[in-house]
Each structure stands twice: as structure tokens, then as C-alpha cells.
Fold:
Amino acid sequence: MERGVSTDVIEITDLSKSYGSVQVLRGLSLRVAAGEVYGLLGPNGAGKSTLLHLILGFLKPSSGSLRVLGSSNPDSVRPQIGYVPERQRYHTRYTAREYLRFIGEFSGMSGLDLADKVDIELHIVGLMNDADRKMSTFSKGMLQRVGVAQALLCDPALLLIDEPTSGLDPGGQREITDLLTNLRDRGHTVFLCTHYQRDIESLCDRVGVLAGGKLATEAVVRDLRALGDGVLIQVDAISTELRGSLEAIGRGVICDLRTVRIRQNTPQIQAMVLHRLLDAGAAIIALESLESPLEQLYARAVRADTSAHRHEYQTNSSDRTISPSPMNSPAPVIPPPPVTRRPNEGDTLLDELLRRGSAQEPTQRTGSRETGADDAEPNV
Structure:
């Protein structure tokens, strides 16, 4: 990135992307600063992976501008970007060390420098003790860590991560969260796409919500944490006198006949409420969390987008006129349009890597059969 030009690693302005008649991104604008961990939340199908592929240059935008590391040419900065896709595929007949060395050689690294770099990244992701095991014996969480090590091989200025904990069991999720926390503490600039809110709460500095193809809202995660998680306390009964005593604790304490809601909870406020309930002889039936501030932020953004789309659909539907057709006439069959590919659009880098990989891929032979032919190509 050119010095003095911008402190933003990612600069996106009014970005749109369509697949035929399907518009995925609609005027998206956002910024990610150097050294920041930015989390983009959105439901499945919101366009998060499409956005990552645009940043990497695998896809071309339909309109708008995109600058990464100070450049509007993705090809020129791609070697400075590490990418961890949601669905990774590996040549699992190799060990983790062999696989990373192959990826390093594919990227132009070699010799002792490559061997030392592979060992460093294996240590960072916690796989040093398993470096010489076949990856076919690895758990999903271990394979995800191999993917992070692969992304770190080039000492990236920017790390892109797509759904890091998707498909992992709770233990694997904790492992990946701890690993990414370590990367955050090392000062990496990270752009993280997920639909898991816990990933955002534990890892990110700022959060944005992608809805309707746009950035629906943004917030500083630290400010959301400061609001505290709400708590709902269920009791057998609350008298009028007790209700007044509880609500006098603070504006965030709200009562009815059988429940107490603490909207901006702190340990001190919760302790005061529980003490007054117990002193009054109220039987506490249950204590559970309300929606966190991040959950509320996300829910409001998605609800607003859903309402907007419903209004748009109803408006467009009211403008349509439907001509009557004979009762027994069959509905016309409309053939699908031919699939066309625009020049310079598509996964051009992936095509290039597949061509190069077919010439450089290490193989093992058993008799006349080449093993591993059914393995997918590595993500580079």
C-alpha cells in the first residue's frame, strides 16, 4: 500500500454485483483500517463469499469501486493477501508439512527459507506435534488450522476468512477462535465473514451487517459489550411494593407480575435485584439471558431489510397486469437463456492455478495407478 495515500486496507464504494438478473450486492460501501479486525455478519446467501471473491479478483464487479491495499488492481496485490475459504479441500494423502511445502513452492518459495517458514506457521496454528501425520487422519478443526497456516505462509498484509467455525463441533470452534484471537493480537488486518455472532463478539473490533446487498448497519464491538447482556428473571409473584423497590434500582430494570428484565446488566445491578427478591421472599424460578446487543443490532437490520423487500414486492406486484388465458390452455414453456460468460469475468486466477497445478502437482504411484487423483486441487 502506498504510504500517505490511505490508512484503509479495504475501500469499497457503491459496489454492485449481479449474476444475470440476480443482484447480490447493491451499492455496498465499507472501509477496513490497517490493523483492524472487521467482522461482516449476514445470513447465508447474503453475498459475503461473493464480496470476498471480488476483493481477491476472482470476480469482477458489475459497478462501483474497490481498492485493496491501496490498489484498484487485484492482481497486483493478491500475493499480499491470505485467504481462508469456507470449504477447503486438501490432498489428504500428504502430511501437513508436505502440503505446506508444496503450497510454498507453488508460490515461489524454496529451500531453507521455506522449511523454516513452514515450521513457524505450524507452530503458530498449534500443529507442530502433528506436522508429519497424514492429513487424512485430521479432524475438521485441525484441517481448518492447516488452512490458516497456508494463508499465513506469504506473511499477508491482509487476511480474509470466510465462515471460520462453520461445521465444527464446540471443541473445534474454541480451537479456531483461540487461534484467530492470537492472530488479532499479533496485529494482522483481518476481514472476517460469518453468520455466527459469537465469532464477532470474541474477535472483532468493528462489525457490519450485510442485508439486502448493502451495509445495513455498523457498530464498534467494544461499545456493544459495554451495554451488557440483558437478563430475564422469572419469579412466582412480584408485589406492587417489591416492583417499586426493584425499578428504583435503575432505568434498565423493568418488572411485571412475574418477571424482572434487566436491560443493561452488570454484576452489581444483578446482585442488587436478586438480593431484594430474596429478601422479599420471592421464589426465583429461572434466570436466563435476553438477546445480546449484537443480536438486537443484527435482528433489527435483517428485519428492516425483510420489510423493505416485502414492500418492494407488493409495489411491483400491484403494477402488473395479467392477461386472462383460455381455461384449458397449457402454460407456455419458456426455455432457459443460454449460459454466457463475459470477457474477463469469472475465476480467472483459479483457472490459471489449475493449469499450473496440473504440471507441478507432486504425485505418488502404486504400480500403474496414480493415487490421489480424486482429491480436489488445493486452495491457494
Q: What stands out?
A: Residues 293-318 form the longest helix (26 residues).
